[in-house]
Amino acid sequence: MPFPQPRKVLLDLRDVSVTYGSGPRALVALDRACLKVSVGEFVSVVGPSGCGKSTLMHVIAGFLKPTSGTILLNGVPVKEPGADRTVMLQEPTLFPWLSVYQNVELGPRSRGVPREQRRRTVQHYLDLVGLSDAQHRKPYELSGGMQQRASLARALANDADMLLVDEPFGALDALTRERMQREIVRIWHETGKTILFITHDVEEAVFCSTSVVVMEANPGRIVDQVAVPFSLRYAERIQNSRGIKSSPDYIAVREQVLARVMKDEGGEAW
Amino acid sequence: MSQTGRPTNALLSVASVVVALAGWAAASRFGGVSPTFLPSPAKVFAAFVDAQVGGYRGYTLMAHVGFSLYRIGAGFLMAVVLGVPVGLAMGRYRTIHAIIDPFVEFFRPLPPLGYYMLLVLWLGIGEASKIVLLFLSGFPVMVVSAAAAVRNVRENHLRVARSLGLSGHQVFWSVIIPSTLPSLFTAARLTIGVTFGSLVAAEIVAATRGLGFVILNSSQYLRTDYVFMGIIIIGVIAMVLDRLAAALERVIVPWAGKA
Asked: How far is A110 from chain B (nearest CA, A)?
């Protein structure tokens, strides 16, 4: 789903700040962050730990109230968590008392979606993440990668306007991680969802996204946003991830982002 | 642990009990200890038979067991039925916690015997004071555990539930209750233990039946064989109930201890 014409702005952050504590000991976790995400975009947020990328996700999700500034989703201010922004987190958060199917079903079910329609939705997204055969199993009977697939299906089945994804593959082994990166690009392409993707992995961010937001720490703030031109080559990204990752286009963007991230580290963290 | 480890351990437990019984039999027979201090296993076994066939103070052994189990069951049920909602509310709302916590913390360490006289004065010498004593001994355990269980619900589970669009009510029933169930089971098992521990105290005043009464009454006549019998029955029943609860736990909350 390329962007032939300008798209509608879905998420609009205006000078959003989060401060913990007050006075001289106050910690500015997020300093006047401005960000626009349009419908259908896949925006990654990278930066060193402590740069406020998780704080950014928490205020957008509504888990945390910003100290100042406004967050608009579809032009409406965000006040509390809601089904229009569904989160997927790094640690497995499937409910262990429910089967995979019931986990995916929970969002639609809580909104009173009729049973038959619910079944179709759940089945569709379980197929999409390749978990149809495991739908009756309990989360603790699945591997880490399968658990994150199920979490993704649960987030997708909720039919949110936006997915907020926080380090979803951070705890997976390298091979599974690589496969999941291809999967999320494919799923994003097939569903046309808008995704905000938090990660500390620059390679992952550049590979998956349409643009990469760079943040720095002390105070946490957004310092740059880099477009990813080759993100329109879906088929190649999905089928030949190694090829993409060794292509000059990819390397150029990766180096651009890395240079930005490392400059902001000030050498201190190394 | 290997698969074959389980039956081996069970066998080990049986063996250690058999050895202990043999040691007891040997000590009472060859140890030169007076039967008043240490009755032989055979004598204690005879006490079982006598108490059941001939009865003890007007009731068969099984009847005594039944009366005690009725009191414990009633006290335990009250502790669970009242303790779980109070504890859940305390865990969920800080204001409720602030209001109730001082009383729970005050009551929890109190020895039931200390306030038993007051219960008898207020509630009479019938069943009510005995059941309330057992209830009061178990209630704080249940409340404190339930409150802790709510506070231990994983923050990220609550976040995901809210972002899936669940209402506060739905979060409570679909996330908080199932999250706390394993801990509530553990709490119920602890509560069973505590109420059994208070049984003898509950049957001190004006009891004419029950296992606690049998132990106390036979103590006054130095019938150690009956005291042994009563203790063994209380211990075995408490153990069996705990095992049953554990088995029930595996069926009802199979996700306990799992991510």
From this structure: 6
Alpha carbons within 13 angstroms on the beta-carbon side of residue A138 total: 12
Spell out which residues of chain B touch residue A95, defining contact as CB-CB under 8 Å: 157, 174-175, 178
Q: How far apart are the C-alpha atoms of B204 and B116, rounded to whole Å?
A: 9
| Rounded distance between C-alpha atoms, residue A173 and residue A145, angstroms | 9
Residue A157: closest CA among A115, A119, A206, A213: A119
> Is 0.90 exceeded by the ipTM?
no
Number of domains in chain B: 1
Domain covering A1-84+162-187+194-270, topology: Rossmann fold (3.40.50)
Tell me the mean pLDDT per 10 residues along chain B, length 259.
Answer: 66 94 91 88 93 92 95 96 96 95 91 89 93 94 95 94 93 95 93 91 88 94 94 93 92 85
Q: What is the DSSP letter of B56?
A: B
Apex B164 CA angle, B161 and B169, nearest 5: 55
Is B105 inside a domain boundary? yes
Cα angle: B66, vertex B47, B71; to 5 degrees: 20
Domain ranges of chain A: 1-84+162-187+194-270, 91-159
Kindly determine whether residue B258 and residue A138, on different chains, have CB atoms separated by under 8 Å. yes
Pairing of strands A221-227, A76-77: unpaired
For chain A, give percent helix, strand, coil, nearest 5.
Answer: 45, 25, 35
Residue B167 to chain A, least CA–CA distance (Å):
8
Query: What residues of chain A lie within 8 A of the CB of B165, using their CB?
Result: 82-83, 86, 107, 110-111, 158
| Test mutation, B154, B155, B157, B163, chain A, max A CBs within 10 A | B163
- In tens, the pLDDT along A8-62 reads 999 999 999 999 888 888 889 999 999 999 999 999 999 988 889 999 999 999 9
CB atoms within 10 A of CB A6: 7
- For residues B155 and B37, what is the distance between their CA atoms, to the nearest angstrom? 57
- CATH number, domain of B147, equals 1.10.3720.10
**Tokens 């703030």 found at:** A221
Q: Is residue B24 part of a domain?
A: no
